[in-house]
Design brief:
1255 residues; alpha/beta; Rossmann fold; Alpha-Beta Plaits; Dna Ligase, domain 1; elongated; disordered N terminus; binds 2'-deoxycytidine-5'-triphosphate; binds magnesium ion; DNA-binding; BRCT_dom; magnesium; DNA repair
DNA sequence: ATCCTCCCCTAC
DNA sequence: TAAGGTAGGGGAGGAT
């Protein structure tokens, strides 16, 4: 407000003469006059263009005037900044330029002549007398080139030159050969909005048609009901003229400072790669090598090579940088916003024009926030087209693909297979074709390129092409699609312009990405008095003027509305969703457009028959929460009503730092893998240092080729169809040390037991970040602390029972980790082995053992013997621990899979520095003890131990003595709750959730409807079971046919049974809780693991899982028993349990028995049983499978579908972990049987989308 | 109840 | 050929 007065003054002052109202009117009249001449127009190439000719030009000014007017443009005799869109000049004194005109479009006359000869309006950018780049250079240079890129400035200049020459060539070429498509950026605007413009203009003031005003005005007027169109135009123009000077100055100033600091340093080192700078194709390095070359295995340059070419890496890096930049702006708390002066001036003008007084609405009442979302239009394409005006108006995509979407299929790959898998997951990479057709193999026949299109022009979008789509399918959708290469440096430059421009108005920004941000305009608007749409018009114009790229903006009272508005505004437009109009506006918005609703959720909603926000509004909150979870449900509920409380996040604190690569991973040898881990760890280390953080938790994320996926992927060097796994470990102290991270990561890799040749993706993430502060503490995590712990452990252990001392302090994590002090791996191993062998219990070792094993593995990696090892880490591990294995490889598995190695082992020094073999353990810090550190310390300890502490024999003995008790405890605990992980758990169905979904009929009970919205194929309830069954069978794969048949039989039987004797079991729906069976439960959980054999549920031996027919007998019997309530449960129980079940069984029988699995009734117990079973049996026993199947069948008959769902989920989760095909097949078998039965009985199936990939 | 791990999902 | 990264929200299941 205060500034308003000032604005007036300025108006008067302005030199262009534009300031006078009279001048404005005059210009307007002139414009109209010229328009009359339209009748004789040769074309409308220059529609919206208004030129001013400065000085001597090659085609004379008169000539230019004629050319422009004849082709729909305007000519200004005076330099009315607000009116003139382009200044035509052949040369211009620097002095002149520097001041007022820097931000004007100063263009060479060739722009006019070329455009005419081309028949289209070409982008003025290549014809600029002074390129935007050169003007901005100082600022940008500081920013982008921070470090490694040595030559930023130099390069940029060079680059500019190069690009120009290229452009020229191109231009010429196009002229000769093709007709230029349409327009440059400004033209685009016109073309896109042109019609609308007309309307807007009708208002009256619009007389000025410069493209600028057009762009902004029309949009504003159309879309926004509130703002005044007139204001927009003028605002825009004025802002332009006024701003330029100031903007510039401040630009350079603030830029260098702010950016250099915050942004620049964050930059990704890989940008520099010369190759990428000019995409043209320096790729020499990357290219031309054998496929193996790319493999990261050996390449020392792999990381930089990959990251330098990864658009997503750049995107992420930039996003983080801008967030940090904004955080910094906020912290500076500056109130210097040079851009606002322009707004104030504009506002003053508008007041003058309208005759309104200040007290205007803008001032008083803006009770609610005004949030703006701004996003560059097809960003990469827009930037890329600056150098390729000839492609404007054409469908264009940015991609690495150099051919036209064709590529030689990769020999061992199976594109069809992958396509099917994608279909299951529903990705859009293949385009609509993919989504619509079950499998469209044909699309691959002609266009096979799997290069992704980062961004495509709106022309391409009309044909169905989307960002992220593969080139092949895109070509199929749009054969004329043109491609342009990446130009990462340029994206950075334009991005900088965007951020700097916005930051000149306000720092209330939330960086979303390099081409997008959220801005809280509330303060800015009240301060300057401009209306939201005026501001936006001015801003967009300014950005366009500076960058040559268009942006679209959305305005609303919250983030959600602002984003939706932007979507509505694109391309090159703006839109304000006024509060009173929210419901009307949002009613028809597709739910898919809601932020947070992606492919998956959209499908779930779609299955619920919810397509639009209006549809969604009719779904009760409770249903949404049941279906999607508490928060997600609430969020959906609010979003579809236009409600969004999310604040703009201007300060950003990093919560994690990671580096991952899921491309080009093909290891042949372990040492390659180890090297990669070291390199990646180094990368993480560098990133941590950049943000000055250290972290306590290291997480390893892997993508592992799915067993049924071909070794060669359809996409060159892609990851193909994979399972994803992750494992984390908590360190005692935060670290950013590369070697520590590498060690821990390798340990985790070991724990995951993956064959390195099947690795397809690797990521290392560090979380629980802390400020870098403590200098010394850093390294410690691995080494120092470990040592401390170690020492303590030793001491303590002798004195105290192993684990207690440790336990006491914190319990932060797994208590289990006993403080045990096992110094060496060897010892531990021995110990473990002994115990295992002797006792025959594998369970006993689980928790603690893990570390040791890992450590061994670790040794292997680092040790010289590496070569010995088989490719698979797990194998090597196994080899070492044969003895252990004998007891059951379950043991190994369990150990390995234990969450991070929490082990009891005392933390040992990881760092080499500590290596002294004798290293006596330093006293552990009390803080560290097992608890808090447990996982870490243990892991670390292990590593260090192995490496550096060769032989503490003494320790070992002690350890052995002490460990047992602890181990036992741990084991017991662990047994109870092993953590299952499912790579794909889905969830959807959960128990009641589905039931909750009102959309589906619940055949059975209310609770468990099987289908969740997720299901792709909504299942229609089929009344007649028999028919259904048949269908099911038919539909199923041949493999399963047999099984299904048998299953079918069972079903029938069961059904019969059911009829005969309805289950009167306990609770109508779920029997789980009956007290009777508690016994079994307890047992199961508590007992440590059974020996593998014991675990097997049934005594039967031998049949391979697959085919054995289901024994009628067994099934029947079990069923009968259950039904009748008499029988002891499954046959297997008896066998099973020696330990567990046996006891329980007897009791069970009584009266209402509950359906159980070897005595386990509660889901918890069932899970534990399943875990043990899976862990103990490398290969599933057919009998066991049958037992499970029978159990599930009973549950189904009991209508306890909820439990069925839970059991299946648990199985899926555990088996996923195993990563074992045989088990997978068994699960498939079980699931098929179950689904068939359910279908026959209820007419629908469980929604098991979560295990779809498995099936 | 709350935290932790391991996932999935989403966004650019 | 192709460069399928990365941060954060959130949910399920488990431990406490
Ligand atoms: N799957 C994707 C999505 C985006 N991007 C990159 C290229 C885009 O140009 C940029 C910005 O993403 P936007 O979602 O803003 O998409 P565009 O700017 O391309 O188009 P528009 O914003 O006009 O819809 O991010 C990418 O590489 N891969
Ligand atoms: Mg964009
Ligand atoms: Mg964007």
């Amino acid at each position: 407000m205060a500034s308003r007065g000032r604005g007036k003054d300025k108006l008067k002052k302005s030199e262009d003469g534009w300031e006078e109202w009279g001048g404005y009117m005059k210009a307007k009249q002139e414009k109209l006059r010229q328009q009359y001449a339209k009748n004789g127009l040769k074309s409308e190439i220059f529609k919206g263009i208004s030129i001013y000719v400065n000085g001597y030009t090659k085609p004379s000014s008169d000539e230019l005037k004629r050319m422009v007017i004849e082709n729909g443009g305007m000519y200004q005799h005076y330099l009315y900044k607000l009116q003139v869109t382009h200044i035509i000049a052949t040369s211009m004194a620097n002095s002149k330029i520097s001041k007022d005109l820097k931000h004007m479009k100063i263009v060479k006359p060739e722009w006019i002549t070329d455009s005419i000869s081309c028949g289209k309006l070409l982008s003025y950018i290549p014809y600029q007398l002074f390129t935007a780049q050169s003007r901005l250079q100082s600022g940008i240079g500081g920013f982008s080139v921070p470090k490694s890129s040595i030559s930023t400035e130099e390069d940029s200049e060079v680059k500019t030159t190069v690009s120009k020459s290229q452009i020229n060539q191109y231009r010429n070429f196009t002229e000769d050969v093709e007709v230029c498509p349409d327009s440059d950026l400004s033209d685009e605007d016109d073309s896109i909005l042109g019609n609308q413009f007309e309307e807007g203009e009708s208002d009256g003031n619009l007389s000025d048609n410069n493209n600028l005003s057009e762009m902004f005005v029309r949009r504003g007027s159309e879309e926004n009901g509130s703002a005044k169109d007139n204001n927009h135009e003028q605002a825009v123009k004025r802002s332009l003229s006024l701003k330029k000077d100031r903007i510039k100055s401040q630009y350079s100033e603030s830029r260098s400072l702010d950016q250099s600091n915050s942004v620049s340093n964050l930059e990704s080192p890989y940008k520099l790669d010369p190759s990428k700078a000019l995409n043209v194709s320096n790729t020499g390095t990357s290219k031309g090598h054998s496929p193996a070359k790319m493999a990261k295995a050996g390449d020392s340059n792999f990381l930089s090579e990959f990251y330098g070419n990864s658009r997503l890496h750049h995107l992420s890096t930039w996003g983080a940088e801008w967030k940090a930049y904004v955080t910094k702006l906020q912290s500076e708390n500056s109130d210097n916003f040079p851009g606002r002066d322009k707004l104030r001036e504009f506002h003053q003008e508008s007041l003058l024009r309208t005759g309104e007084s200040e007290s205007h609405a803008s001032v008083r009442g803006r009770p609610e926030r005004v949030i703006m979302h701004i996003d560059m239009d097809c960003f990469f394409v827009s930037v890329g087209l600056l150098d390729r005006p000839d492609l404007r108006g054409k469908p264009v995509g940015v991609t690495h693909s150099k051919n036209k979407g064709m590529s030689a299929p990769i020999p061992g790959s199976d594109p069809h297979f992958e396509m099917q898998q994608w279909h299951l997951k529903g990705k859009k990479k293949l385009g609509d074709v993919y989504e619509k057709l079950p499998v469209d193999l044909q699309s691959f026949d002609t266009f096979t390129s799997m290069a992704e299109i980062a961004s495509c022009s709106y022309e391409a979008r009309k044909a169905g092409v989307k960002n992220g789509m593969f080139m092949g399918p895109a070509k199929k959708l749009c054969p004329e699609l043109q491609t342009i290469p990446y130009n990462f440096e340029k994206y950075q430059e334009i991005s900088t312009i965007l951020y700097d421009t916005v930051a000149s108005y306000t720092h209330d920004i939330e960086a979303v990405s390099c081409d997008e941000m959220l801005v809280d305009c509330t303060d800015l608007l009240s301060d300057t008095g401009v209306t939201p749409l005026d501001f936006t018009s001015i801003l967009r114009q300014e950005i366009y003027t500076k960058s040559g790229c268009t942006a679209s903006t959305g305005l609303g009272s919250n983030v959600l509305l602002a984003k939706l508005a932007t979507r509505n505004a694109k391309p090159n437009g703006q839109y304000y969703v006024e509060s009173y109009d929210v419901l009307e506006f949002i009613k028809d918005v597709s739910v898919r457009d809601l932020p947070g609703v992606g492919w998956s959720m959209n499908r779930k909603l779609s299955n619920m028959n919810v397509k639009t926000c209006g549809d969604l509004q009719s779904v009760p909150l409770s249903t949404l929460q049941k279906e999607f979870g508490s928060k997600t449900g609430q969020s959906l509920y609010n979003s579809c009503r236009g409600i969004d409380d999310r604040p703009i996040k201007m300060e950003n604190e990093r919560k994690s730092v990671s580096a991952e690569i899921n491309y080009g991973i093909r290891f042949q040898k372990e040492h390659e893998c180890v090297k990669f881990f070291n390199d990646l760890s180094e990368e993480v280390h560098n990133r941590l240092q950049k943000v000055k953080r250290k972290g306590k938790v290291v997480t390893l994320k892997l993508k592992v080729r799915r067993e049924d996926a071909p070794k060669e992927t359809a996409k060159f060097m892609g990851h193909g169809i994979c399972n994803s796994l992750s494992r984390s470990i908590t360190l005692p102290l935060a670290t950013d040390d590369a070697s520590c991270i590498a060690k821990e990561s390798l340990m985790l890799l070991h724990a995951l037991k993956v064959d390195v040749t099947d690795l397809r993706g690797i990521g290392i993430q560090v979380t629980r970040l802390e400020a870098e502060a403590g200098i010394k503490s850093d390294k410690s995590a691995c080494g120092h602390q470990s040592i401390l712990n170690f020492t303590v452990a030793q001491k303590t252990s002798p004195d105290k029972p192993a684990g207690k001392p440790i336990q006491s302090p914190n319990k932060s994590r797994s208590v289990k980790t006993l403080p045990t002090m096992v110094p060496k791996m060897n010892d531990i191993d021995v110990f473990l082995q002994r115990s295992s062998v002797q006792k025959g219990e594998r369970g006993a070792f689980k928790g603690d053992n893990v570390p040791e094993i890992d450590s061994n593995a670790y040794k292997d990696f680092y040790g010289e013997d590496t070569e010995k090892r088989s490719s698979s880490l797990s194998q090597s591990l196994v080899e070492k621990h044969r003895i252990t294995l004998m007891s059951g490889h379950t043991l190994v598995d369990e150990l390995s899979r234990r969450k991070t190695a929490k082990g009891f082992l005392p933390p040992l020094p990881t760092l080499p520095s500590f290596t002294s073999p004798e290293s006596t353990p330093s006293p552990p810090e009390s803080g560290f003890l097992p608890f808090s550190t447990r996982s870490n310390s243990s892991a670390t300890a292990i590593c260090s131990t192995l490496d550096f502490l060769p032989s503490p024999s003494q320790i070992d003995q002690e350890v052995l003595k002490e460990l047992p008790p602890d181990i036992r405890r741990q084991i017991e605990q662990e047994i109870k709750s092993k953590q299952p992980d499912t790579s794909k758990s889905s969830t959807i169905i959960h128990d009641s959730q589905e039931a909750g979904c009102s959309y589906w009929p619940d055949p059975v009970t209310t609770d468990m409807i099987t289908r969740s919205p997720e299901d792709d194929t909504p299942i229609v309830a089929l009344p007649s079971p028999s028919q259904i069954d048949l269908d099911c069978l038919n539909a199923l794969p041949k493999e399963l046919q047999d099984e299904l048949k048998s299953a079918y039989k069972h079903q029938t039987t069961q059904a019969d049974m059911q009829h005969k004797s309805p289950t009167k079991l306990a609770s109508p729906s779920k029997s789980k809780k009956s007290p009777l069976f508690k016994v079994p439960k307890g047992r199961a959980t508590k007992k440590r693991k059974l020996s593998p054999k014991k675990l097997s549920f049934s005594n039967k031996k031998s049949k391979s899982i697959e085919q054995k027919e289901v024994d009628h007998d067994t099934v029947l019997i079990s069923i009968e028993d259950d039904v009748s309530g008499i029988g002891p449960r499954l046959t297997e129980n008896a066998s099973f349990d020696n330990e567990n079940v046996a006891e329980a069984q007897p009791e069970t029988k009584p009266v209402a028995e509950e359906i159980n699995l070897c005595g386990a009734v509660h889901i918890k117990d069932v899970r534990n049983l399943l875990k043990e079973w899976l862990n103990s049996c490398p290969v599933p026993q057919e009998e066991d499978v049958e037992v499970i199947t029978n159990y599930l069948s009973q549950l189904i008959l009991d209508k306890n579908l909820e439990l069925v769902d839970l059991v299946l989920k648990a199985l899926n989760r555990y088996i996923h972990k195993l990563n074992n095909n045989v088990w997978r097949n068994s699960l498939r078998h079980i699931v098929n049987n179950t689904q068939c039965l359910i279908h026959s009985l209820h007419g629908s199936q469980l929604n098991i989308q979560y295990m779809k990939t498995l099936l």
